[in-house]
Amino acid sequence: MSVPSTEIECLASLILDEEQLHAADLVDWRALLCGDWRDMMTLLDYMTSIRPSNSFMRKLIVATEELDPFIDKYFGKEDIRIVNWNESAYEEELIERIRSPRQSYTVTLAIDFQPTPRRLRRIRAILEKSGTLVIPHELPEWRTRYPDLMQSFSKDGGRFIKLFETMSTTSRTREIEFRLQAGRAECRRLYSFTDNMDDRGR
């Protein structure tokens, strides 16, 4: 499998990995997307381009204050669930719009494109303890001001992924692969040159 080269490819890979992970078990899982609507739309457009069947759409929950772009594009066409997360409502109400006793599914993956402490607390109440949270980055002061909240995402088998760090690692991986490929090409060139010189000396 190729290494994802962009944030969108990395996020799509995480969602598809989640789909594959639960393909054989009985877990009715969901992935929560929230944050900037443009980022979410870019991710959805990319995923539909690589998975024309769109079967994964019913596993996605889009929580946003900007409902119109998603309703215009997806309402009545896809099984994607669109939830109003206007923060003028009470937190308990916002949480229940995603996860309530009436829902049988579990949220095992949450992707927040514009994290705030308030929204992260909400996600903590929704996301399974062993689930995965993905954010672009975190502010340094969050670790000191909200230590219990931030640490909770990596406890009990959970994963806390910061894309800035992940993509930096990916970039280094690609650089190493490129150098290895360049090194192998140079070795082949030197071997070919040496063989030619040997042939001429005979």
Walk me through the structure:
With 202 residues, the protein is an alpha/beta fold. It has a single domain, classed as NAD(P)-binding Rossmann-like Domain (Rossmann fold, 3-Layer(aba) Sandwich). The chain has helices spanning 7-21, 37-50, 68-74, 91-98, 117-126, 142-145, 147-152, 163-201; strands at residues 29-34, 60-64, 81-84, 106-112, 127-135, 159-162. The chain has a six-stranded parallel β-sheet with strand order 3-2-1-4-5-6, sandwiched between helices. Strand 1, helix 2 and strand 2 (60-64) form a beta-alpha-beta unit. Helix 1 (7-21) crosses helix 2 (37-50) and helix 4 (91-98) crosses helix 5. It is globular, with a radius of gyration of 22 Å.
Shape: globular
Helix/strand structural class: alpha/beta
Biggest sheet: strand arrangement: 3-2-1-4-5-6
What number of structural domains do the residues give? 1
Overall residue-averaged pLDDT value: 82
Please identify the top-level CATH class.
Alpha Beta
Proportion in β-strands: 15-25%
- Biggest sheet features: 6 strands, parallel
How far do the termini sit from each other? Answer: 46 Å
Q: Helix count, per DSSP?
A: 8
Write a compact overview of the structure shown.
The chain is built from eight helices and six strands.
Question: Characteristics of this structure?
Answer:
202 residues; globular; 51% helix; Rossmann fold; single chain; 6-stranded parallel beta sheet
In terms of topology, how is this protein built?
Elements: H1 7-21, E1 29-34, H2 37-50, E2 60-64, H3 68-74, E3 81-84, H4 91-98, E4 106-112, H5 117-126, E5 127-135, H6 142-145, H7 147-152, E6 159-162, H8 163-201
Parallel strand pairs: 1-2, 1-4, 2-3, 4-5, 5-6
